[in-house]
Specification:
The chain is α/β, with parallel strands linked by helices and 295 residues long. It contains 12 helices and 11 strands. Helix 1 packs across helix 4 and helix 2 crosses helix 3. The model has no long low-confidence stretch (mean pLDDT 91).
């Protein structure tokens, strides 16, 4: 039996969707579906049921998953042991929020890659998170602590957010003096309500009850550009807002606090490549503490 077919099976089982597994494997969903049918034909068993939400393991699939995961873990340990002395190698997939991934990780990751030139790093920095518990990522930086799953989680850092506007905007519209002023004559920038992927991203109600954004985006970087362009006032992490010299804090005493959590899978957290990135990221966050929590 082809090991690559078993790896495809693992990706489908962990992601729960053919299309997501195909994206992780770098192929189209039709190809992934053909590979799955080929594997099922060889085994003479149906491994997944097709549902509206995606692929759900059958009883045969559940039994096979336990065996294939054990094989995958053994393969990982063998690979790590043969690479001792040469530094970690292979592919490391990291899932982070768009803002943290862009402004903190990507801005400094050259240092990590210089230390570990044999690694390939996949930095998944977008709206939503890949799941270490489903083995979609080796490590994730999330906005809340996972409540369940075979993972190890610890707080990475607190970080602060506050309102910002461009200097040009404030020159034209004036500086709000009270939170209630934001409800009158000031366009607010924020997330699209039904596309908020984590409740921790709902900020405006903490500034003042009833505030609603009229300029909305699922991307924090797009929100930053809207605010910088003078389109309105919005909440940004301080590590984004303070880095833009054209932005001015609005009602700076109204600071919002959130946390980043570092999450790894119990079975892979001791792999050399995972430990290397975890140690580097912890050190980076310590050095960037002033940007994450200014003042």
């Amino acid at each position: 039996m082809n090991w690559s077919d078993l790896q495809d099976f693992l990706m489908i089982a962990r992601s729960g969707q053919l299309s997501r597994a195909a994206a992780l494997a770098g192929v189209d969903a039709t190809t992934m579906g053909r590979r799955l049918r080929r594997l099922e034909a060889r085994l003479g068993q149906t491994l997944f049921e097709q549902t509206r939400e995606g692929q759900v393991l059958t009883e045969a699939g559940e039994a096979m998953l336990a065996q294939v995961e054990a094989m995958d873990q053994a393969a990982g340990r063998i690979a790590e042991s043969t690479r001792e002395g040469s530094g970690p190698t292979g592919t490391l997939r990291i899932s982070v929020s768009e803002g943290f991934g862009t402004w903190i990780v990507a801005a400094n990751v050259r240092d990590f890659m210089a230390r570990h030139p044999r690694l390939v790093l996949d930095l998944v920095a977008n709206s939503g998170f890949l799941s270490p518990s489903k083995r979609e990522a080796d490590l994730a930086v999330t906005l809340s602590r996972p409540r369940a799953g075979p993972v190890i989680a610890g707080k990475l850092s607190d970080y602060a957010l506050r309102l910002y506007a461009s200097a040009d905007y404030l020159a034209a519209h004036g500086m709000p003096e009270r939170p209630a002023d934001l409800a009158h004559g000031h366009p607010l920038v924020g997330y699209i309500p039904d596309m908020v992927y984590a409740p921790e991203l709902r900020y405006l109600a903490e500034i003042h009850p009833g505030l609603v954004a009229s300029l909305r985006s699922s991307s924090i970087n797009a929100q930053h550009r809207l605010i910088a362009a003078g389109a309105g006032i919005g909440v940004l992490p301080c590590f984004i807002g303070d880095a833009d010299a054209g932005l001015v804090p609005v009602l700076p005493e109204r600071r919002i606090l959130r946390s980043f959590w570092l999450v790894t899978h119990k079975d892979t957290h001791q792999l050399a490549r995972v430990r290397a990135f975890k140690d580097w990221l912890t050190g980076l966050v310590a050095r960037e503490r002033g940007r994450l929590l200014p003042g």
